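Annotators were shown the component list below and the corresponding predicted structure, then asked to write short factual statements about the assembly.
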Amino acid sequence: MPDKETSKLEPSQMKTDTEEPRIGVYTCYCGGNIGFVIDCERVADELGKLPNVVVTRTDMSMCSDVGQTMIEEDIREHGVNRVVIGACAPSLHEQTFRGTVSRAGLNPYFYHHVGIREQDSWVHSHDHEGATKKAIRLMSAGIAKARLLEPLEPIKLSAEKHALVIGGGVAGLRSAWDLSRRGLKVTLVEKSPFLGGHMAQLEKTFPSGEEAGGLLGPLIANVVSDPNITVHTYSEVTGVRGYVGDFHIQITQQSRGVDDTLGEAAMQACKTEVQDEFNYGLTNRKLVYKAYPGCYPSTPAVDWDHCPDGYLELEIDGRQIKLENQPKTFDINTGAVVVATGFQPYTPLKGEYGYLEHPEVLTLPQFIRLLTLIPEGKELQLNGHRVHNIGFVHCVGSRQIEGIHEAQEDGQVNNYCSRVCCTATLQAINELRQRYPDLNIVDIYEDIRTYGRGHEEYYAEASANQVLFMRFHGEEPAEVVRATDGDKSPLLIRVKDYLTWGEEIEVPVDMVVLAVGMMPTSIEDLIRLLKVSPGTDRFLLEVHPKLRPVETAVPGVVLAGTAQGPMNIKESIAAASAAASKVAVLLSRGKVELEPFVAHVDHELCTGSGECVEVCAYEDAISLKPVSMDGKEVEKALVTSANCVGCGVCVSACPNLAIDLQGWTLKQYDAMVDALVMDMSAIGVKHE
Amino acid sequence: MSNRVDLGLLKELKEYGHVNVEACFNCGNCTAICPLSTDETPFPRNNIRLLQVGLKERILQSTDPWLCYYCGECSETCPRDAEPAEAQMALRRWLTAQYDWTGLGARFYTSNTWAIGALLFMTVIVLTLIALFHGPMETDHVELNTFAPIHIVHLADLVMAVAISLYLFMNVYRMFSFIILKGAKVKIPLSIYLTEAWNLPYQFLTQKRFSECEDRRPWLNHMILASGYALMFAIIVLFLNWFQTDNLYPLFNPQRWLGYYAAAALIYGAGMAIWGRAKKDRQLHKYSQLSDWLFPILLILLAVSGLLVHIFRYVGMPLATYYAYVVHMIFVPSIYFVVGPMGKWAHLFYRPLAIYFQAVKEKALVAQTAPAVASVGAD
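Structure shown to annotators:
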């Protein structure tokens, strides 16, 4: 093919898929990431010998402007009509180059990306020769596929300009408000009867020291007064159908049990008390209750979880009144879903650092509530015992090690860092120091991770104010034991303190505060309904931690706040705003575009056996529908593109080979496999 | 023995002058930069940690604070401004008070009222004794030995020396019991005590460790001061009959120039210390407690009043000589009973002793493992 180097074709001709493929092959050095291991020039030379390859080039950084312009010029001026790029993983730059190709006037799916960094140079960094040969093989497979590429169009769907936000904590509230301000209608559902989430239970926030209530209150007021936002408290998502742009969500709402006229009287009349979860069980509340003063809605609610029969009988003004739970179910139509289901503080196991064995052991969230319950100027007491010495233990339920820490019910330990607890603990310590200057405070940590702007100051303040820090290693956690009778303080913390050369030191304390980590709220049902995936740490997983940090693998479902991982309020709000912005970009045009890599049925070959429908894991993705062929009504498999994720299970199940994945056809796979096992010397490549 | 946290210790040490130990995050920079610390004695980090945690017994058993000579490099480079060098100083003050069996040391270090009160008390005692025992005041010409009969002065001198020695001996024994009896954790054969004994006079006379600081000027000042003090001490305790005399000697007579040297060295050395502390000229002088001022000030007053006695005698001013002598006499016991065995003066003995005890402990530890090596050789 000697003439191909010089021949030129008009751009209009390039778009046709019937013409002879003219392949441009581009090998990226990726700085030195690829180039230091793989001999990119040799790869380019060898691949240039393959049929249909008309241009081979290398560049230090193909994704740079220079690199992209080079590709565009080759398409425009050298008649390249298929592009193969060997570079980093496609998850990083596939979209970049798809843009490059389409800017040059070529169908963006006439491009194939080969990952020779993650799959080659990084894993074979000590074998330059082997890595180079592997790159030649991988890219020749890419070239083989490129010969068979067909033009594709993104799937376009009309979209409802409405978003559903699940969760009425700070992330959900912020997402809802941001979405509304971008002109979308929003429905916010909150499982509990009141808005506010965990932030409502805090006193001060770091790093500014502002009152949590002072920040949350206006946000709630904005949301509930916004005509574009509909709030449903005491509500849960109980059904999900549809796809991005057109979800049909079923919501089930519990009755509040009382209305404004009856509410206060019912609270008075109710005599039964249960542990108040708002104060983490430090106090009790009634069955008819308000979560906290000034909460929204201001109407009390009946705690049905503690009314096993679903009703509550009260005597109000001499009358016997029966309050009943009559849950109602309704559907909404929405274009996207923001999951802001939040976290729950880790609950230590019985006996973990003496928790539930010694009443002097509290968790940090409990302690923060305790501080709010003690009036300013009153001494620090627990169960009538004056506290002189107090110990804080970090990393409880975080950074756990299998075999060292007792596993939870699901057999797992929390090996992640909860990130927020270090600063939160130090903030509580500083607050404590201000209120009780004579208190002896010991802070027992594994590492101090005050990572955020303005966080380290909390450590500096604590260490300047007579707080003794002790450091343990994760493999040797501290233990809390009851002191012997002669001791003044009821408990001893035993810690191998690595600041004192690993010696075991005993800390006599009157109270122990466990800085517990974060765990995701249990949302198994919702995970099942939305088909989103949790990570091994049980938090919901994003598509890519850097490039698509708030999107899930399910189109139209995004994450906001601590459902995704431990975050502080600032980060939750940033994530919530990012989620809102993603949804707004998705829905604001009234239509959404999806990748065309979905199943396609050739109705000539389909016999309607239905085996594809049986194996498909996705609702309404493939189904048998009557179609008329040659004047006859026959059952054929039909794909609903919006619901298909392109997993390919149906392709393998079809006995007639009637199904193919667009962009990844069986023929393309065959060609790639052939290329991978081809004897390269047959085409003049001598290095095999 | 369990290691139990005692947060009271750091608060107690505040009164002995630690500045900012709570800020320390135990990075160890201080020990890394210290020219004097060793693997066996990794101060200041180790005893700063003991101080933070409040492991009182362990500090009492340690020689480390005495092995520090306040080069000050640790404080200059401390990333937390925890002032580790001043912490060592505070620990020396505290240890001095702990070694003191009377408890007076703790009183004087933590209460300026007590320290000044004791000075006034000593003044009254001295004036009373002089009022009771002084001889006739010859006004025609100077007869100091008639006013202050030498046999009485010498007797008082010796009585005081014995009392101070006994007092000091008790304190040294307590130091020994903390560091060796409780803290050695190894059996020490008598031979090691003897073979290491050279440390005591050697360190006493040379202050060798002090000279290992990078900046050697403080050591030089201190050597000058110490030589003047030692000389004067020897003259007064051993040769008072020769020194306190009514004879007039020519300038080249050793009785005169030895006295001049000692006085000049005392005034120069103590003066430099006072000047440095007033100007805060180096890390060593940045923080001062009353005890740090009192010792050099008393030394200067002692030397200056002694010189005045001498000058008045030579120019033939009898009354001036006698009054100057009375003033001079006030400062002598003050030094020993206010900043003496219970105070800063005691470092003269504690420092060489600490080096000695440390050497003994380390040698004993080596000896403990050595027989095993020897028996391997024998096989």
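Statements collected:
1. The radius of gyration of chain A is 31 Å.
2. Residues 128-147 of chain A form the longest helix (20 residues).
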